[in-house]
Amino acid sequence: MPQAIVIGVDINPQAIVLAEVNKKNNALTNVTFKQSDLFTALEPGQKFDLVVSNPPYISREEYEGLESVVKKWEDPGALIGGDNGLVFYERIAQQAAAHLNDVPHGDAHVPCVVVELGNDPHAVKALFEQNGFKVVRLFKDMQGVERWLACCK
Question: How far is 51 from 62, CA to CA, in rounded Å?
Answer without folding.
Answer: 27
